[in-house]
Amino acid sequence: MPRSIRTQSASNCDGWTGRRHGSKPPKHSKSFWVRRSHDAMTFVKNLHTDPISPVNYFRGSETNGWQCNGVNGVTSYAVTSSLTNGTGSSTIYYTDSDGDSQSSTVTYATQSASMTQMEVRLQTNTARETGKPISCVFVLKKTTVVGTTRTSEFVATLKLTISTGLMSNSCTILSSPTKDNNGDFQLPSDVTLQSGVVSMLSPIPVTGKTINYSLLPVEFKTYPDTEAGPDKARKLNLATRQNEKQHYNGWEKCVCKVWTSSKVDLIDYLTPGDRELFEQNLWWFANESDLPGHELDLGDEPDTDEQKEFSIQVCPKGSSVVIDKLTITVVPRSTKEKFDAWHTAESADMGWLAYAPAMYQSLGYGNSDPEPPTVLPGLNGNWFSPGAINTYYHPDGFYEMRSLFFTRPVLSSGHQACYDAQGAIITTGISGCSADKELPVTSGGSFTGHLNSDVKPFIWALQLDGNPVQGTFTYTNLTAPIMHEGAYARKYLVVRPAVPNQKPMLAPGTSP
Fold first, then answer.
1. What is the phi-psi region of residue 348: left when phi exceeds 0, alpha when psi lies from -120 to 50, beta otherwise?
2. Number of domains the chain contains
3. How many CB atoms lie within 10 A of CB 400?
C-alpha cells in the first residue's frame, strides 16, 4: 500500500482559516505570521502500512495460478520509492501599524515521498499432494530512474514452492551476485523470505531518483487453445491409459515451431519480463547441451512429413537448478500449408458422412459383438466384429468396430467406432470415434488412400498443436503419446467427426 509524506500549509495550521482582504483577522504583526507560516511549512512524515489479506483461491483460467496481494493477471510485481523536491507558497494577511489590511506571499520548499511494500506468494485452487510440489522461479531486479536515464540491476533468482495445501510454504535463493561470510547467497535488507512469502519494502527514497524492486516470473508462457497457434506453447492436458504424465516425466509444455529460418530466440517463449536481465542471468540447454546464448539453432528445414524435437531447459546462470522445460516441435512449412489446404477441401466435401451406418451405443455382453449375424460370423450387415485396440491414436479407446464400405457412388469410405473399457461408445475427443474418408487396408481399403486422406492429416494436426510425435514406419501407431489435445486436433475432428450423421444409435442385439 502507498506510504506518503504530506505537507501542511499555513491555511490550516492551529485551526486558523485564511480570510479575504478587508476582513478583521487577529491583530498580529507581519513578522509573527511569517514565523508561523515557516513553522507550518515543515513537512510531516505520514508513513503507513496496511496489512494485506491473503486470497486463497483464483479462477483456474487466470495466469497459471501465481498471485500477489490477491491480484491476478500481472506479469511482474514491483515496489517503488521516490522523493520529489518542489516549492509552495502561501499568502499571509495582516494588519499594519496604521490599522490597514495588508498581504504578503511566502515561498517555501517542499518534499514529497512515496514508498510501498508488497508480499508475493504462490497460490493454487487445488491442494497439492505431498511429494507433488509446484513451484515458480522469479528474477528479482532493482531499477533506478534519474531523469530519463533508467538502469536495472540483477539482485537474485528466487524459487517459491507449494509442497502441500494451497499456498507456497518455502522460498529458496537460487543465485545472487552477493554472498555472506559463509558463502551463502545474500539479499538486500529490504527483501526478506519467510514461510513461502517474499516481502519487499521499497528502498529509502533519494532526492531525484525513483527506485523499485521487481519480481519477474521466469516460466515458459502457455496459452489457451482459444489463442491461435502454432508457435503458442501449450500444456499437457491428457490423462489416459497411455500414462502421458509418466511418459513425459516433467516435460509438460510443448510448442510447434513452423520452420522459417534456422534461428529462434528462446526468450520469446518466456512470460514477458526484462529481456536484458534474462539475457544476462539465465542459462539455456537444448537436448542436454548448454547453449552459448539464448538463440537456438534449428538447422535445416525438416523434410516433408518429418519433424525435429528440441528439449529446452532454462536455469539461473551458474546454477544447475532447472527453472522450466519446453519441448519444441519443428515442422516444415509444408505441414501447415498441407493441413490448411486439406481442411479447406474437406470442409467443402462432407456429404459422404450421411452414408455412414448407425453406430452401436455399446458393445454386447462381455464386450462382444453387438450386431446380430446376418451374413457370416465376424462379418455382419454393416460392421466388422469388435477388436481390442491400444494405440496412441485413440489413447483411451479399448475396443473398435470398423464399418464395411458405405453404400455410396464411390465405395471407399468407412467409420471407426471406439469404445471404453466397459464397452460404452466414446463420442468426444481424440479417444473417440472417427470417420474415415478412405477405408484402411484392414477393412478392404488401400494403404496409401487411408494414409494420405485420414492418417497424415491427423498427425499434422497433432504436430501443429505442439505434440512431439510422428507416425511409426508403418503408421500403425504414433512414436509417442499425445501430450496436448488442441485446436488443430479439434479442427480435424470437425471434418472427421465421431458422430457422422443424425442416425439414431442402436442398442446391442438390434439392427437398423
1. alpha
2. 3
3. 18
